[in-house]
Amino acid sequence: MNDLEEGRLPPRFTISPQELIRVIEERDRKWVDNLGGVSALVYALRSHPQHGLSNEQIFAGLQPRIDFYGPNKFKYPPPKSFVRLLYEAFHDVTIIILSIAAIISLIIGSAIEDNRKHYGYLEGIAIVLVVFIVVLVQALIDRQKEKKFRQLNSVKDNYAVQVIRASSAVSVNADQILVGDVIKLAAGDKVPADAILIQGSAFKTNESAMTGEPIDIHKQPDADIFLLSGTTVSEGVGYALVVAVGERSQWGVILKGLIVEPENTPLQERLDRLAWSIGKLGILFAVLTFLVSLIRWIVDSKRSNVWEWESVLDFFIDAVTIVVVAIPEGLPLAITLGLAFAMRKMMKDNNLVRRLEACETMGSATQLNADKTGTLTQNRMTVVEANWTGPQVTYDETLSPAPDMLSAKYRHILSVNMAVNTQANLQYNASGTVDHLGNKTECALLQLVNQWQTDYRKIRNEHDIFRVYMFDSTKKSMSTAESLSDGTIRLHTKGAPEMVINHCSYRLEADGETHTKIDDHTRAQILGYVKGMASRGLRTLLLAYRDINHDRSDEAFWECAPDTDLTYIGVVGIKDPIRPETREAVRQLKEAGVTVRMVTGDNPLTAKFIAKEAGILDDDGIVMEGPEFRSMSQSELEKKALKIQVLARSTPNDKLLLVRQQKKLGEVTSVTGDGTNDGPALKEADVGFALGIAGTEIAKEACDIVILDDNIQSMTKAVLWGRNVYQSIRKFLQFQLVVNVVAVSLNFISACAGQELPLGAVPLLWVNMIMDSMGALALATEPPRPELLQRKPFGRRAPLINRAMYRNIIGMSIYQLIVSLILQYAGADIFGLECASADDCTARDLEIRSIIFNVFVFMQIGSEFNSRRITSKNVFAGIQHSILFIVIITITVLVQVALMIGVGDTRVGDSIGIGRINGAAWGTSLVLGALAVPWGFLVRCVPLEWCYGPTDEDPTEMSKLEKLIHVPKRKPPVAPDPSESSGSDSSKVTGTDETELSTDHQAKDVDDVPHPVGLSPSLVRLRVFVHAVAFVNVVSRGKMSPPETL
């Protein structure tokens, strides 16, 4: 390894691994020829084309070869330790600030005697507990999803490979393959590493894992000799020289480039904007509080001629408290709970969420760019139409026409023709799936034979094959001759109908015995059937046969297939059919406002019909080809990127360019795919879906969500759950901000009036942490409603708090604020409470504050019910299905009752501001809490056009109220430039290969933490300042007990 590190080659090896990687990447056949051909390359790697690695090398040990060229293993990053996951979960600005505040609170609460007597340290303990819960839950979720994903890929690399070593064929695991090994490959084998073909017979590979299309590529020593790792052998047998393994193979290079850190999601961007807005509002109220208090102090001090300068510090502390109270500290827990609940439920719907934020991002998705092969279709060629004896036959999912349509003899002749005149095979798996080995078109014929309750393998075994005439590109046909029991030779032929029909003289009738002469009219009729099938995007084959009585020893006669005077059997139409659930899934996604688009490498005609069959292409939809798309100017891309419904003949670069352009236009994009070619686009999109069964390891590494059952319907469920998560976060924000608005307003009014704060630090902490946590759990665990798919997606520009939420928050805050102020200033008279003496009103004030606290809590419980719906007036709709919500509400009530009764009569209660209340106060609390529900109904009756705030559909739309009071017109939100956030330049898409695109991501430093998308550094600094200023409030607790929200 020292020689390699110093740039020198060991004497035993004359070609560097980097040179071999370049040869494979560039398909540099000229370099191979200049070296002296494939044989010279074999010897240069100290191997032998027939004998493989020598006995001497094996005996001496293969470690030097492994050290120099590497093992055939991909080194996934080791799973993060639980401590590391805890650290990453803790690595959040809000969590860190809360933790620092908790430490300071614990120090002050414990060190200062007066605070210690009043249990001032309880605040710090409570904050530490909440931080611990959030961090622990997040770390456990991350570990679980990582474990599931590694289990999914663990079985993929465990398969056997035939290797020639010391002149013997041995079977070894794929991870034991070395550079210089000569491997034997046959139909159905997976290529374990990058290799160069030494020799082969009718050797073809299927590179759909790399290109996405089921096209067989012919490989031969004098033409295309390059075999790519991860592809499969579709036909023939061959021997190949391994030249690149593991991370140095094309498979490994692409996979390595996809392991990067994710970008911010649309929700994270909205939360950043919300934090900034709340910070500005909190600072505004804080400045007003300080100025009003300062003016009041100046006036009072002037009158009394006593200047108590310590009061100015108290005013500043009150102002900072306003800022702290404005920040919804329970939001991180609410988001964590909501996403965790959705992730577990989505797993039951066969969606393995690899990136937790993808749960909510999918709810905002506006664009779905779907790969055709394997996603919309079944990735297997299937007979879907046929013309046997005249009438057109369309097959259903059983591939069986009406039983009385074909006679047993006719079907027997047809089955033998399809079984013996093919080289492919079917492999039935324990899971019930069928793998196609060999030519996909032939596999479609074999599957039709098996669906007719006839085993094609049994037919092959029972029939004596005389000669096989492989596909002739001139005749566009293939033939197989078999010997019948009476000595007759029967020639079975299949091929292009327009060619083979000219060699047909007869037509077999439905009884399987009668032969009718074919005339020009019949030929034209058959070709009409063929043209109709082709116009529907089907691949057509004509099946025919001929019985021949001729001397078998006549080599001149049998040298070429005697395919004249054939008897026409029928024509079959074959295609890769769409999945049964595709059309319904597309319909649901369209109804949900998601634009579904097909991106495929197939020809436009086939793509167009598949898209129409799937319900993607409308009558006026745009079908465009990749070359035209990639040659468009930027202005043309902006006009067409969202209007294209089918992008045919596209390359992986085209898909990546399309995704980047959509993101630049502000769309939230999602991509589906199963092949290696889909990797870059899957990574670039906001949400990438990979198929769990058919998907390659690279596709699954690049994606955000793995569809475990390969069912496109699962994406519809992902959209539903994503919208439910987003809606749950909105519900919690509506609930949380009511608490914050009322608390800020109470503190502002009380501070300006020179009154003692109505809620003590611990009671307010109880509301902010315990009640909000229970509220988050209650609202986040509600099941999704099907109606969520009937609305448009939120998109990237939709506001986090819309007009309906503003209406509800303001309306509920008015109710709670009025009730709290009445209790603060008139509570003593209402409940008949009096001071113990003229100079001692401590007990009365404690009871008033306790009543306010209890009423405040029960109003929040009523607010939770109101928060179940944002626009709908019936907040109890579907509550019978939300058992967990009811249970949590019940627990919340019981916990509150236990707190008031258990702590109210103790010295602890007196110290923290919670005392005992009478029966009238309990009844008042229940009634005022219950009245919050009908009040919420009245609030939702207010027309939205007479309310403040942006709408989801058009954030710039101004309401009648806003126009009436001349509110400045809102500016449209600017979508972030994806080229800046992704770390790659979209201008480099055209003209680069797939490897370059995927490895662009390596330019990212996974340890860097980028600024929130859409926020300038100055805004980020101001946002951090808003959080940090909360520390001053903690320091002040040695002198007073302001409301605490940290």
TrEMBL record:
Q: Which Pfam families match?
A: Cation_ATPase (PF13246), Cation_ATPase_C (PF00689), Cation_ATPase_N (PF00690), E1-E2_ATPase (PF00122)
Region annotation Disordered: residue ranges? 967-1010
Q: Which residues form the Cation-transporting P-type ATPase N-terminal domain?
A: 34-110
Q: What is the top-level taxon of the source organism?
A: Eukaryota
Looking at the UniProt entry, the stretches that span the membrane are 89-112, 118-141, 278-299, 319-342, 804-826, 875-899, 919-938
GO molecular-function terms, A-Z: ATP binding; ATP hydrolysis activity; metal ion binding; P-type calcium transporter activity
Q: Which reaction does it catalyse?
A: Ca(2+)(in) + ATP + H2O = Ca(2+)(out) + ADP + phosphate + H(+)
> What kind of membrane protein is this, topologically?
Multi-pass membrane protein
Give the keywords, sorted: ATP-binding, Calcium, Calcium transport, Ion transport, Magnesium, Membrane, Metal-binding, Nucleotide-binding, Translocase, Transmembrane, Transmembrane helix, Transport
Comp. bias regions, Low complexity: 977-987
Regions of compositional bias (Basic and acidic residues) in chain numbering:
998-1010
Span of the signal peptide: none
Where, if anywhere, are coiled coils annotated? none
- Can you tell me which family this protein belongs to? Belongs to the cation transport ATPase (P-type) (TC 3.A.3) family.
Query: What does the UniProt function comment say about this protein?
Result: Catalyzes the hydrolysis of ATP coupled with the transport of calcium.
| Record-given protein name | Calcium-transporting ATPase
